[in-house]
Amino acid sequence: MKLLRTYPISLIVGVGIALLLLLPVSSGDMSSRIPNADKYVHAFLFLLLSFAMSFESSRAVKGRYPFVGYVCCIFIPLVWGALMEFAQHFLSYRSGSWWDFVADGIGVAMGFALGYVWFISECKSE
User: Fold this and answer.
1) For 26, phi and psi rounded to 5 degrees?
2) What's the CA gap between 25 and 70, in Å, rounded?
3) How far is Cα 18 from Cα 119, in angstroms, rounded to an integer?
4) CB 48 within 8 A of CB 111
5) pLDDT tens for residues 57-77?
6) Domain ranges of the chain
7) How many CB atoms lie within 10 A of CB 109?
């Protein structure tokens, strides 16, 4: 239950990512107009997840950013991305891709960097 109180935004974003990446979607016009559009979507989704975890972790540790925070904000989203790509291999209407996982990792790195910059600016303002 503490997890739900500490990381509500991250949990909502994580469930949203699972729904978006595991439910059937139409290929639509976006993929034909924008090359590799799905990679941008993956990066953005995991940027949101990593930033949300950075934000909530910084609030949870009240001004400290221990090693556990780094693990939470980088390792957990990467594992979630790997699980999503693995799960897609078992769905007839989706396919997992190493390049999607790379995009997930880029999003995690960007989200963590934004979260870390935000955290540093918050510490300086206190």
Assistant:
1) -85, 145
2) 33
3) 27
4) yes
5) 877 666 565 666 777 789 999
6) 2-17+37-125
7) 17
- Going residue by residue through the chain, which has 126 residues, state the pLDDT in tens, using 9 for 90 and above: 777 788 899 999 999 999 998 988 776 655 667 777 789 999 999 999 999 988 888 776 665 656 667 777 899 999 999 999 999 988 888 888 899 999 999 999 999 999 888 777 766 666
In the block, tokens 């949870």 appear at 60
pLDDT at 43: 95
Let me know: does 77 contact 83? Beta carbons within 8 Å: no
Q: What is the pTM of this model?
A: 0.85
Could you count the other beta carbons within 10 Å of the beta carbon of residue 68? 12
Residue with tokens 């799960």: 87
Contact between 7 and 53 (Cβ < 8 Å): yes
Torsion (CA) 60, 55, 78, 98 in degrees, nearest 10? 170
